[in-house]
Design goal:
This protein is 42% helix and 20% strand. The chain has seven helices and five strands, in the order βαββαβαβαααα. α6 packs antiparallel against α7.
Length: 144
């Protein structure tokens, strides 16, 4: 594992019903949760802190996530000066898909590898954002 690695998960302000599945860039960021291996710390970034996040992303040796290329990077791109294609990404879903021959859900991976289920859903995060419950939203980002 690269010592200068990040694990990234992102929550949005809107849903697919509002913007359509082909318009990921319109979902808008509510919070981005990052686990940083460099300092063994969890950090959340709100939409207005994305410039700070970009500095950390461009300094990382590896950015790890599940379906991160198809989702998180597409949602992040409008906020970044750097192209997401230039970032060093390890997409766990893509790696599993290469071996299994098909896509799998994070729920099924969590159940099979950790014996536990995800504790929340993306719609919970959208609701919390619209209710202005940012601290609860930040906590939810790392409970799932």
């Amino acid at each position: 594992m690269a010592e200068n690695a990040l694990v990234l998960d992102l929550e949005t302000q809107k849903t697919f019903n509002e913007v359509g599945r082909e318009n990921l860039h319109k979902l808008k960021i509510s919070v981005v949760g990052v686990y940083d291996y460099q300092d063994d710390n969890y950090r959340t970034y709100e939409e207005n802190e994305i410039m700070e996040l970009e500095q950390r992303l461009t300094a990382a040796d590896l950015i790890i996530g599940f379906n991160i290329r198809r989702f998180e990077m597409a949602v992040l791109q409008p906020y970044l000066f750097t192209s997401v294609e230039a970032l060093p990404v390890l997409d766990l879903m893509e790696e599993i898909e290469k071996v299994r021959g098909h896509r799998v859900s994070l729920q099924s991976v969590a159940q099979a590898t950790l014996g536990t289920a995800k504790s929340g859903q993306g719609l919970d995060a959208v609701t919390l954002f619209h209710e202005g419950k940012m601290e609860e939203l930040k906590r939810l980002t790392w409970k799932r």
